Amino acid sequence: MEKEDQINLHGMWGSTFTKRVELALKLKGIPYEYIEEDLSNKSQLVLNYNPVHKKLPILVHNGKPIIESLIILEYIDVKEPKFASGPVFLISRLSEGVGRVVTTDGEAQEKATNDLFEKLKVLEEGMKEFFPGGSPIPSINGKNRVLLDILICTLFGP
């Protein structure tokens, strides 16, 4: 019988998608067990928990699998609402926007660039509430780090 609130994270050491979930769990203080998976020799657990795509990461909460890193991050926000930070959808839209800018040309690229700048303005306005002093750098003591920081770091960081 599983313990109440048992959380297992199936991932791979080199996956930025796994790392973003690990970072969110650690920053939110959610205890979990990490299970390293080998993508060239997928375990039966991976095949059972994600039978269609067979991809990582997979978060298993009390035996119920959650797949796709952005969905897992939203789930973590719901599980720990006192740490909720909001606009996961905005980050996914920004990623889509960057993709359109890079993969188009001419008039379509110009439109995609303008759309991306509009979305970035919305993000900038939204971030002002996280940085009331106007500082563009989050506190390194971890108190101001939220899901949005994690997503921006893993999407646009080095």
Question: How would you characterize the overall build of this protein?
Answer:
The chain has 158 residues and is of the alpha+beta class. The protein is built from 6 helices and 4 strands. A hairpin with a 2-residue loop joins β3 and β4 (64-67). Residues 82-87 and 137-141 have low confidence and may be disordered.
Order of helices and strands: EHEHEEHHHH
Tell me the strand percentage band. Answer: 5-15%
Low-confidence parts, pLDDT < 50 over ≥5 residues? 82-87, 137-141
What fraction, in percent, of the residue positions are helical?
40-55%
Tell me, briefly, the overall form: globular
How many DSSP H or I helices? 6
Rounded to the nearest angstrom, the radius of gyration is 18 Å
Side-by-side strand order of the widest sheet: 2-1-3-4
Termini, distance in Å?
A: 42 Å
Biggest sheet layout? 4 strands, mixed
Oligomer: single chain
Q: What is the mean pLDDT?
A: 78
Q: Structural class, please?
A: alpha+beta
Write down how many β-strands occur, each being a DSSP E stretch of 2 or more residues. 4
